[in-house]
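Thread: Modeling a multi-component assembly for a lab meeting

Hi all, long-time lurker, first post. My supervisor asked me to bring a structural picture of a complex we are working on to next week's group meeting, and I have zero experience with this. I have the sequence lines for every component (212 residues in total). Could someone generate the structure of the whole assembly? Inputs are pasted exactly as I received them:
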Amino acid sequence: MDPEGNLLLITIEGIDGSGKSTLLSALKGQLADLDPIFTREPGATWVGESVRRAIAEQIDPITEATLFVADHAAHLAKIIRPALASDRLVISDRYTDSRYAYQSVTLEGVIPDPLAWLKAMHNGWSIVPDKTFLLVIPIDDALLRLSEKNGREHFERREILEKVQNNYLEYARAEPSRFVIVDAKKDKDEMAAFVAQVIRFTLQSSRSHRRP
Ligand code: TYD
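Re: Modeling a multi-component assembly
Sure thing. I ran the full set together rather than chain by chain. Output:
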Protein backbone atom coordinates (compact mmCIF):
# COMPACT_ATOMS: atom_id res chain seq x y z
CA MET A 1 0.00 0.00 0.00
CA ASP A 2 1.21 3.47 -0.79
CA PRO A 3 2.24 5.47 2.28
CA GLU A 4 0.19 8.45 1.06
CA GLY A 5 -2.87 6.21 1.18
CA ASN A 6 -3.48 6.18 -2.56
CA LEU A 7 -4.85 2.96 -3.90
CA LEU A 8 -5.01 0.55 -5.69
CA LEU A 9 -2.10 -1.61 -6.70
CA ILE A 10 -3.02 -5.03 -8.03
CA THR A 11 -0.43 -7.62 -9.03
CA ILE A 12 -0.77 -10.79 -11.06
CA GLU A 13 1.69 -13.58 -10.29
CA GLY A 14 2.28 -17.17 -11.31
CA ILE A 15 4.84 -19.44 -12.90
CA ASP A 16 5.73 -19.27 -16.58
CA GLY A 17 2.95 -20.94 -18.55
CA SER A 18 0.28 -20.21 -15.92
CA GLY A 19 -1.74 -18.06 -18.34
CA LYS A 20 -1.09 -14.57 -17.00
CA SER A 21 -1.00 -13.03 -20.46
CA THR A 22 -4.40 -14.47 -21.41
CA LEU A 23 -5.90 -13.28 -18.14
CA LEU A 24 -4.44 -9.80 -18.58
CA SER A 25 -5.78 -9.36 -22.06
CA ALA A 26 -9.27 -10.40 -20.88
CA LEU A 27 -9.03 -7.98 -17.93
CA LYS A 28 -8.23 -5.12 -20.29
CA GLY A 29 -11.68 -5.57 -21.81
CA GLN A 30 -13.55 -6.34 -18.60
CA LEU A 31 -12.14 -3.41 -16.61
CA ALA A 32 -12.01 -0.83 -19.41
CA ASP A 33 -14.50 1.45 -17.61
CA LEU A 34 -12.05 1.82 -14.69
CA ASP A 35 -9.29 2.94 -17.08
CA PRO A 36 -6.53 1.03 -15.28
CA ILE A 37 -2.83 1.37 -16.01
CA PHE A 38 -1.53 -2.03 -17.10
CA THR A 39 2.16 -2.46 -16.52
CA ARG A 40 4.72 -5.22 -16.04
CA GLU A 41 7.97 -6.46 -14.58
CA PRO A 42 10.49 -6.84 -16.03
CA GLY A 43 10.50 -4.24 -18.72
CA ALA A 44 8.15 -1.37 -17.97
CA THR A 45 11.13 0.99 -18.40
CA TRP A 46 14.39 0.75 -20.38
CA VAL A 47 16.07 -0.90 -17.38
CA GLY A 48 14.15 -4.01 -18.38
CA GLU A 49 16.33 -4.33 -21.48
CA SER A 50 19.35 -5.07 -19.30
CA VAL A 51 17.29 -7.64 -17.39
CA ARG A 52 16.33 -9.39 -20.62
CA ARG A 53 19.96 -9.37 -21.72
CA ALA A 54 21.02 -10.83 -18.37
CA ILE A 55 18.42 -13.61 -18.69
CA ALA A 56 19.47 -14.40 -22.26
CA GLU A 57 23.18 -14.50 -21.38
CA GLN A 58 22.58 -16.54 -18.23
CA ILE A 59 24.69 -14.14 -16.27
CA ASP A 60 25.58 -14.96 -12.65
CA PRO A 61 22.55 -15.10 -10.32
CA ILE A 62 23.53 -12.13 -8.15
CA THR A 63 23.88 -9.82 -11.16
CA GLU A 64 20.56 -11.08 -12.46
CA ALA A 65 18.79 -10.61 -9.11
CA THR A 66 20.09 -7.09 -8.60
CA LEU A 67 19.06 -6.13 -12.14
CA PHE A 68 15.52 -7.35 -11.42
CA VAL A 69 15.55 -5.16 -8.29
CA ALA A 70 16.85 -2.17 -10.31
CA ASP A 71 14.06 -2.73 -12.81
CA HIS A 72 11.55 -2.69 -9.94
CA ALA A 73 12.96 0.59 -8.59
CA ALA A 74 12.68 2.25 -12.01
CA HIS A 75 9.18 0.82 -12.44
CA LEU A 76 8.07 2.33 -9.12
CA ALA A 77 9.66 5.69 -9.83
CA LYS A 78 8.53 6.09 -13.43
CA ILE A 79 5.17 4.38 -13.53
CA ILE A 80 3.69 3.10 -10.29
CA ARG A 81 4.19 6.01 -7.90
CA PRO A 82 3.00 8.66 -10.40
CA ALA A 83 -0.03 6.53 -11.30
CA LEU A 84 -1.04 5.93 -7.69
CA ALA A 85 -0.48 9.58 -6.88
CA SER A 86 -3.04 10.49 -9.52
CA ASP A 87 -5.44 7.92 -8.04
CA ARG A 88 -5.26 5.46 -10.93
CA LEU A 89 -5.84 1.78 -10.62
CA VAL A 90 -2.59 -0.02 -11.42
CA ILE A 91 -2.41 -3.65 -12.52
CA SER A 92 1.07 -5.13 -12.78
CA ASP A 93 1.94 -8.34 -14.59
CA ARG A 94 4.55 -9.65 -12.08
CA TYR A 95 5.96 -7.63 -9.22
CA THR A 96 8.00 -8.17 -6.04
CA ASP A 97 6.65 -11.66 -5.33
CA SER A 98 8.22 -12.80 -8.63
CA ARG A 99 11.60 -11.85 -7.21
CA TYR A 100 10.93 -13.62 -3.94
CA ALA A 101 9.63 -16.76 -5.66
CA TYR A 102 12.16 -17.04 -8.54
CA GLN A 103 15.34 -15.54 -7.09
CA SER A 104 14.96 -17.59 -3.89
CA VAL A 105 15.53 -20.52 -6.25
CA THR A 106 18.27 -19.07 -8.46
CA LEU A 107 20.20 -17.86 -5.39
CA GLU A 108 19.89 -21.18 -3.54
CA GLY A 109 23.39 -22.23 -2.51
CA VAL A 110 24.82 -18.93 -3.73
CA ILE A 111 24.07 -16.91 -0.60
CA PRO A 112 22.99 -18.16 2.84
CA ASP A 113 19.40 -16.91 3.07
CA PRO A 114 18.16 -15.73 -0.35
CA LEU A 115 14.65 -14.70 0.75
CA ALA A 116 15.90 -12.61 3.68
CA TRP A 117 18.44 -10.97 1.36
CA LEU A 118 15.80 -10.23 -1.26
CA LYS A 119 13.39 -8.81 1.31
CA ALA A 120 16.12 -6.60 2.76
CA MET A 121 16.84 -5.30 -0.76
CA HIS A 122 13.23 -4.04 -1.01
CA ASN A 123 12.92 -2.80 2.50
CA GLY A 124 11.96 0.82 3.08
CA TRP A 125 11.20 1.87 -0.50
CA SER A 126 9.02 -0.68 -2.24
CA ILE A 127 5.20 -0.66 -2.10
CA VAL A 128 3.24 -3.70 -0.98
CA PRO A 129 0.35 -4.49 -3.37
CA ASP A 130 -3.23 -4.24 -2.14
CA LYS A 131 -4.16 -7.52 -3.80
CA THR A 132 -2.14 -10.20 -5.49
CA PHE A 133 -3.74 -12.79 -7.73
CA LEU A 134 -1.71 -15.98 -7.83
CA LEU A 135 -2.42 -18.22 -10.81
CA VAL A 136 -1.82 -21.81 -9.80
CA ILE A 137 -1.50 -24.60 -12.35
CA PRO A 138 -0.15 -28.18 -12.40
CA ILE A 139 3.48 -28.05 -13.56
CA ASP A 140 2.76 -30.48 -16.43
CA ASP A 141 0.13 -28.13 -17.84
CA ALA A 142 2.47 -25.15 -17.59
CA LEU A 143 5.26 -27.08 -19.34
CA LEU A 144 2.86 -28.13 -22.08
CA ARG A 145 1.92 -24.50 -22.71
CA LEU A 146 5.58 -23.49 -22.69
CA SER A 147 6.57 -26.21 -25.14
CA GLU A 148 4.45 -24.43 -27.74
CA LYS A 149 6.80 -21.45 -27.38
CA ASN A 150 10.27 -21.23 -28.89
CA GLY A 151 13.51 -20.65 -26.95
CA ARG A 152 12.92 -21.49 -23.31
CA GLU A 153 14.44 -19.28 -20.65
CA HIS A 154 16.45 -20.93 -17.93
CA PHE A 155 13.57 -20.44 -15.47
CA GLU A 156 11.26 -22.57 -17.55
CA ARG A 157 12.41 -25.97 -16.33
CA ARG A 158 10.34 -28.40 -14.28
CA GLU A 159 12.53 -28.42 -11.19
CA ILE A 160 12.69 -24.62 -11.11
CA LEU A 161 8.98 -24.09 -11.77
CA GLU A 162 8.01 -26.61 -9.07
CA LYS A 163 10.06 -24.77 -6.48
CA VAL A 164 8.87 -21.35 -7.68
CA GLN A 165 5.22 -22.38 -7.43
CA ASN A 166 5.77 -23.86 -3.95
CA ASN A 167 7.39 -20.59 -2.88
CA TYR A 168 4.41 -18.61 -4.17
CA LEU A 169 1.99 -20.89 -2.31
CA GLU A 170 3.95 -20.43 0.89
CA TYR A 171 3.73 -16.63 0.58
CA ALA A 172 0.00 -16.90 -0.11
CA ARG A 173 -0.46 -18.96 3.05
CA ALA A 174 1.49 -16.37 5.03
CA GLU A 175 -0.58 -13.43 3.73
CA PRO A 176 -4.09 -14.73 3.09
CA SER A 177 -5.69 -11.28 3.05
CA ARG A 178 -3.47 -10.02 0.24
CA PHE A 179 -3.30 -13.14 -1.92
CA VAL A 180 -6.14 -14.56 -3.94
CA ILE A 181 -5.39 -17.99 -5.37
CA VAL A 182 -6.82 -18.53 -8.83
CA ASP A 183 -7.23 -21.96 -10.39
CA ALA A 184 -5.52 -21.35 -13.73
CA LYS A 185 -7.08 -24.47 -15.27
CA LYS A 186 -10.48 -22.81 -15.19
CA ASP A 187 -12.16 -21.49 -18.31
CA LYS A 188 -10.39 -18.23 -19.20
CA ASP A 189 -13.53 -16.07 -19.33
CA GLU A 190 -14.74 -17.43 -16.02
CA MET A 191 -11.35 -16.77 -14.48
CA ALA A 192 -11.21 -13.20 -15.80
CA ALA A 193 -14.75 -12.48 -14.60
CA PHE A 194 -13.84 -13.69 -11.11
CA VAL A 195 -10.63 -11.63 -10.95
CA ALA A 196 -12.40 -8.52 -12.30
CA GLN A 197 -15.11 -8.90 -9.67
CA VAL A 198 -12.60 -9.13 -6.81
CA ILE A 199 -10.75 -6.07 -8.17
CA ARG A 200 -13.99 -4.05 -8.28
CA PHE A 201 -14.89 -5.14 -4.78
CA THR A 202 -11.42 -4.28 -3.41
CA LEU A 203 -11.53 -0.91 -5.13
CA GLN A 204 -14.94 -0.08 -3.67
CA SER A 205 -14.01 -1.05 -0.14
CA SER A 206 -10.69 0.80 -0.24
CA ARG A 207 -12.32 3.95 -1.59
CA SER A 208 -15.09 3.90 1.00
CA HIS A 209 -12.44 3.56 3.73
CA ARG A 210 -10.75 6.66 2.47
CA ARG A 211 -13.85 8.84 2.56
CA PRO A 212 -13.55 11.48 5.29
P1 TYD B 1 8.66 -12.42 -18.71
O1 TYD B 1 9.37 -12.42 -20.00
O2 TYD B 1 7.82 -11.27 -18.37
O3 TYD B 1 7.89 -13.78 -18.65
P2 TYD B 1 6.36 -14.04 -18.41
O4 TYD B 1 5.72 -13.71 -19.72
O5 TYD B 1 6.30 -15.49 -18.03
O6 TYD B 1 5.93 -13.12 -17.29
O7 TYD B 1 9.66 -12.61 -17.50
C1 TYD B 1 10.82 -13.27 -17.75
C2 TYD B 1 11.17 -14.22 -16.67
O8 TYD B 1 11.67 -13.49 -15.56
C3 TYD B 1 10.05 -15.10 -16.14
O9 TYD B 1 10.48 -16.44 -16.26
C4 TYD B 1 9.97 -14.76 -14.67
C5 TYD B 1 11.31 -14.15 -14.37
N1 TYD B 1 11.34 -13.15 -13.29
C6 TYD B 1 12.21 -13.36 -12.23
O10 TYD B 1 12.92 -14.36 -12.17
N2 TYD B 1 12.29 -12.42 -11.26
C7 TYD B 1 11.56 -11.28 -11.28
O11 TYD B 1 11.66 -10.45 -10.35
C8 TYD B 1 10.65 -11.06 -12.38
C9 TYD B 1 9.84 -9.81 -12.43
C10 TYD B 1 10.58 -12.03 -13.37
